[in-house]
Amino acid sequence: MKYLSYYDVNVKKIQKTPCFTLTKVFAMTEYLIASTRNYLEGLEELYKPIGKKKRLYLFESKNSSTEKSEDLKSLYKAGGFIGIKPRSFSPKALFLDMDGTSIHEESIDFFLESLHLGEELSNITEDALQGKISFTTSYFSRIKLLKGVHKSKLIESAKKLTLQTGIKDLSIWFHKRNLPVFIISGGLSFFCSEIATLLSAKAWHSNHPGLDGDFLTGESVGILVDTLEKKTWFQNTCENLRIPESDTVMIGDGANDRAILSAAGLPVGFRPRTILQDLIDVYNDTGDHSLLIDFLEA
User: Fold this and answer.
1) Burial class of residue 194 (count of CB atoms within 10 Å of its CB; 0-12, 13-18, 19+)
2) Domain boundaries along the sequence of the chain
3) Are 14 and 7 in contact (CB under 8 A)?
4) In this structure, how many other beta carbons lie within 10 angstroms of the beta carbon of residue 91?
5) How far apart, in Å, do the first and last CA atoms of the chain sit?
6) For 89-298, CATH number?
7) What is the SS3 assignment for 212?
8) pTM for the whole thing?
């Protein structure tokens, strides 16, 4: 039997109720979507009492290859949560982007602002998140501003980064089931290592700033963690630990997450930019990661 899962805004939890067998994924708000009305015949009266109290609904899909309809994507709206998942999906690992996903801040920008260099950033970071400019261009435009800064200031700034609501609970949910958590970021190692510790991540991967003694050179050393490197590290990690890619959850928010999201079993967008909408199966714009726990258990 299939189940209708919906987000109950009154108790802030995803509820589940038996539903007729469905062969497609459908979504509805207060009004049934016209193009799916014929498939939902007989359900309108059943769910009418909750229609005006619940913001969003989601249906468990028949399989992982369910094609997202334009009707479903039309419900990707500010403050909402909606998603699809295969009935048999059982997560084996959680992969997390850091900036804007695991933490509230864009860490490099946050640090530069503390040095009163924020005005020089202009719209570089947001343009990169939207895919208007490459991550590489954005990263090197910002990293060069760090030349001459003492590394102690980075360590101090890392302590001030704040976790997103529910991300700790989500990580704990995975840890209780002996499932690993990983963090992969286009940010700096000083910041990523701090957040990885807070979330008890099994491993993390990020960019390393160049150092001349204790001072930053304004350059980056080692492999650049860009869009493709995120996916490569994800695939290598899965292969080394014998974790099927189809059994992973990946959460991201911007263009630099496109490749890795496309490879994950359950791609989740957390306050995602528009460029990710064709790739994600779960849209979460509520600002609370803990809703994903209810979704996975539904």
Assistant:
1) buried
2) 1-88, 89-298
3) yes
4) 18
5) 13
6) 3.40.50.1000
7) strand
8) 0.80
Q: How far apart are CA 261 and CA 281, in angstroms?
A: 10
How many CA within 13 A on the CB side of residue 86? 16
| Angstrom distance (rounded) from CA 59 to CA 128 | 33
Tokens of 139: 């990263």
Find out whether 180 and 174 touch, Cβ atoms under 8 Å: yes
Helix boundaries (H) for the chain: 44-51, 70-73, 107-114, 124-129, 135-143, 151-158, 167-176, 189-198, 227-241, 258-263, 291-297
- Provide the 10 A C-beta neighbour count for residue 263: 18
Give the residues of the chain that fall short of pLDDT 50: 1-6, 8-9, 17-66
- For 151-199, how does the pLDDT look when each residue is reduced to its tens digit (9 = 90+)? 999 999 999 999 999 999 999 999 999 999 999 999 999 999 999 999 9
